[in-house]
Amino acid sequence: MGVTTADVIVAGAGHNALIAAAYLAKAGHEVLLLDARPNAGGAAATEELTLPSFHFDSCSTGHTLIQPNPVLRDDELGLKSVYGLEYVSPDPIAHVVFPDGESFTHWLDLDRTLEEISRFSQRDAETYRRGLDEFAEIRPQVGAYRFNPIGYAPPLDVALADRPRWLRRIASSAYDVIRREYESRYLQSYLLWQAFQTAQPVDSPGSGLLAYSIVAGRQAQSWTLPLGGSGELPRALLDCLADLGATIVCGRRVVELVVEDGRCTGVVTEDGERWLARKAVLSSIHVKSLVDMAPREAWGDDF
Ligand SMILES: Cc1cc2nc3c(=O)[nH]c(=O)nc-3n(C[C@H](O)[C@H](O)[C@H](O)COP(=O)(O)OP(=O)(O)OC[C@H]3O[C@@H](n4cnc5c(N)ncnc54)[C@H](O)[C@@H]3O)c2cc1C
Questions:
Q1: Sign of dihedral through CA atoms 71, 94, 235, 146?
Q2: What is the pLDDT of residues 11-28, one digit of tens each?
Q3: What pLDDT, in 10s, does the model give residues 53-104?
Q4: Looking at the 3D structure of the chain, how many domains does it have?
Q5: Which of 59, 213, 237 to mutate to test the pocket of ligand 1 (most atoms within 8 A of CB)?
Q6: Hey, which of 16, 39, 60 would you mutate to test ligand 1's pocket, going by the most ligand atoms within 8 Å of its Cβ?
Q7: Which of 2, 6, 21, 220 is the most buried (most CB within 10 A)?
Q8: Which residue's alpha carbon is at the smallest distance from atom 14 of ligand 1?
Q9: Whose CA is nearest to atom 1 of ligand 1?
Q10: Do 118 and 73 have their domain in common?
Q11: 273: left (phi > 0), else alpha (psi -120 to 50), else beta?
């Protein structure tokens, strides 16, 4: 079987790997990406799932959490200015209809949202505004915790040790927080739906922050949707990578990591081909799959 060599081999070409690969290629490294599926982009995919010309996001849709990343915030790779990636923040954010025919509209304009909430409860409108203000006070600590690897920023119980009210809220479930804070059943239902957006069980202890964090993000920037669908992000990245001279090989499943003298020096695909790296191997394959691709002892005792 053949051997292919590049400076950097990237195993798995989801959007995170594409971003890392583009930075490496921009820094002058020869990059080669491998993906098991016929197309790169992973769970950022827009596909014709039903009829021709009807495009669906088959997994992710809202590109919200990635917005503070310099790749988008500062357009470091030119994805927006050169490669045509464009985001919109839909207003209204959401319009929901309840079984009894009542409805609720969530607007990007805060005053308009407060007016809408006060149709149900003036007290809930005040609670909503207060919740946003209070969450803004802890946003730096939450941001540091969320955007750093474990061990590189204090955990929330340490960062918020001087704010017992927040510790209590975070330890509660989102369900308990919302039921306690809001009196209107309509508001409770709507906010619980928002809190559930990351598919974390909202009745689990420890999910209390979701009652604040998700809706604060929505109120600030709606859903942040790429025009044309989720697949527009990998499309722009692939165009960028092509200009940077990177190679993307799809339809090749990585089954083994090549480990020499304690270092990963390449990968093997299921057809037996070896892909060797002169400088580094990078992977965004889920760690549960990756761990079986090298002998257990290669991971070290504390892995
Ligand atoms: C249904 C659903 C809805 C979601 N909605 C949202 C949302 O609205 N907003 C949001 O922010 N997030 C959402 N997410 C989460 C988000 O999609 C993921 O966090 C994100 O796509 C992860 O990107 P990634 O590049 O790290 O990995 P992935 O997108 O998982 O990419 C991994 C890549 O590795 C490849 N691969 C895997 N194993 C191998 C192998 N052995 N050999 C070669 N290649 C391999 C895969 O084919 C894939 O292309 C959603 C996820 C799902 C499943």
A1: positive
A2: 999 999 999 999 999 999
A3: 999 999 999 998 899 899 999 999 999 999 999 999 999 999 999 999 999 9
A4: 2
A5: 59
A6: 60
A7: 21
A8: 60
A9: 59
A10: no
A11: beta
